[in-house]
């Protein structure tokens, strides 16, 4: 544990308060100088997202409407990583500053916005790549280690060794009765899954190429992965490693930016540098998968080429120049936040099913009227 230090702070305000219920106008942004988005991240149930900027961070709630609820500006360097815990007052922040900055990139600050207090500071000897929050754990990802802290005691619960992980790949379930964590293993294409409550580890050979992206369903039962090749997305039983379903994103190599699974365990979405969002349908039978079932057993021993991978049932064209992070909203909406500060909302036409089979949304919907399938607004001008 000598590579890590943790400290609990007393009452100390580190952020300048400036609450805002509505977003800034373009004129206000121009008056303040260039606003740069450093990171965007959805919370655990897609009810809100947090934006790390070169000034600080902004929090947006998405239910029932999209609006800015919190804005904090500590100094000109801001935060390169910002995570929120559901729609609570707790945030994990990693500074973007060097050269003796108060907010260096090797520290994690857990901020209690209700008390205006940074009550926990976690310091490391190397740069923090990513942070994940649950109601029970604080997960800090370094280049070759993952630290899992107890949120109640602020003590290290587990230290996990990984292969080189420059993207900070890590995901964790959010159902309180379970605690499943997935991160890169020790070989290219390998994922290690930790059942933290049962103290069980499973190593899954997910791909032949290195892992580019992964996500767990909210209950930790299913693991979705994509490799640096970016052509296939695979769905595994997270606890025993069985391959349950395979999706084909395309034939050409692509960088998968983000994978997301809906809270109702019906859909998986993927965004990539090809400027396309793909939405895939999870088969209902994989949710009732049992290792003893004959069909699962047969699939487990057959070569991969014997069963056909499935195509997306819905696609949407995105600006290829922007990295989009996808999430699933209420009322069957798909939400995308861009690193350029843009937001795209895809909504179903009937309000019940996501989309009918083989629907491809044209770009002409981007600036359509109120009742069209898509609404687009720029960062700082989100729809009310």
From TrEMBL:
Domain of life, source organism: Eukaryota
Subcellular location, record wording: Preautophagosomal structure membrane
Keywords annotated in UniProt: Repeat, WD repeat
InterPro entries, per database record: PROPPIN, WD40/YVTN_repeat-like_dom_sf, WD40_repeat_dom_sf, WD40_rpt
Primary location class: membrane
Membrane topology of this protein: Peripheral membrane protein
GO cellular component: phagophore assembly site membrane
Family: Belongs to the WD repeat PROPPIN family.
Protein name stated in the entry: Uncharacterized protein
Lineage of source species: Eukaryota, Viridiplantae, Streptophyta, Embryophyta, Tracheophyta
